[in-house]
Amino acid sequence: MPHCDAGVSPSRAMVLLAIHRAYLIRWESDFDCETPTEWWHVIKSEPEELEALSANTRSKVRRGDKRFLVEPASRKQILETGHAVYCKAYERYDTFEPMMTREDFCEAIMALPAETEFWVVRHRQSGEMVAFSENLVSDDACFYLSIWSTPDSLRQYASYALIYRMNLHYLNERGLRYVSDGARSISHNTGIHDFLIERFGFRKAYARLHVVYFPLLSPVVFALYPFRQRISQAQGPLCQKVNILLKQEAIRRSFKRHRTSQRALAN
Description:
This protein is α+β, with helices and mostly antiparallel strands. Helix content is about 45%, strand content about 25%. The chain has helices at about 10-20, 55-65, 75-90, 100-110, 150-155, 160-175, 190-200, 220-225, 230-235, 235-265, and strands spanning about 25-35, 40-45, 70-75, 115-125, 130-140, 140-150, 180-185, 205-215.
């Protein structure tokens, strides 16, 4: 979890890379620091208060609440009816990741940690599931891992009702330290972070990103880095994966520049 000490150093990272035969390892430190950085999580740490939201947001929350029922659900319920919602929601995303088959979807749901909690949004009249959320609760925080909503339900403010009800539950009723919609996205374009910041009072919790590569991968990343602009314009799954890797490398390098500027100021 980002607010917990990962206990990883560059030397320890090299050992972990060898043990797990991984291409890279990344971790975070200095979570929720005061200095803005190029890496952040989008969180809310204050209790949810309807009257603290804008008049427009309050209206949409109430309209969503009136049309939809938001409630906790079991993993079994998501396995039974969640795939149809996922498929409709997937069509809205611009991503290289392929749509999961029903079998793959069920395997992914079953692979989620035991601490994962699920919430669903159902139409009050028909009972049809139109949205669901996968939430990991750990170390006194809740992480909204994935939220899937059908396009029609979004137009009817289901997402407003869902976010509001989950915030109430985790922040007000259970008193968790914060809720989070995750870190800065570098794999696909998403407006959810801006939506949460603008509508529900979420904020950026800045942190430091560390990345250590397997020794044979480092020279490849360093050689491709000067061509990152061209690669970002290329098509195809492989180019998109390389583009993500280079975006992450740019963020990693931003902290080296930050240290250099701090030393210059100190001198």
